[in-house]
Structure formats: structure tokens, C-alpha cells
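Work Package 3 (structural annotation) set out to generate three-dimensional models for the target panel prioritized at the project kickoff. During this period the team completed the workflow that converts sequence records into C-alpha cells, so that structures can be stored uniformly alongside our sequence database. As a representative example, we reproduce one entry of 66 residues exactly as it appears in the project archive.
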Amino acid sequence: MLFGFIPGVPGGIEIVIFGVIVLLVFGNRLPALMRSMGRSVVEFKKGVNDTDSDESDDGDQSRKNT
């Protein structure tokens, strides 16, 4: 493991056991969580694209005014 020399960092087996426990506890909620995270990413990208297009529109208008 990359951080095997650092004391207290979990190894491969510990990470696998932790992952199995997380799946057992939150397994029924994970699809809804991933769906909402995907929607959030899509909305974020839409917002970024809107601000980029707004900035480019503002730049074109300022060039036309001069």
C-alpha cells in the first residue's frame, strides 16, 4: 500500500471490511444518494455554462459599444 509506512493508516483488508459495512448499513439508500449527486453535478455544470455564456455575451457587448 502507498501509505503503509504511516502508522494508523488502514490497510487493504480494513478498507474492504469498512466498505462492506457501509454497503450493509446504507445499501438501500445508495441509489437515491447517487441519483441526487448526479443531478447536483448536472445543475452545477449548467450553472457554470450559463455564467461562461453570460461573460462572453458581456464581452461582445462592450466591444460593440466602443
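The mean pLDDT is 81.
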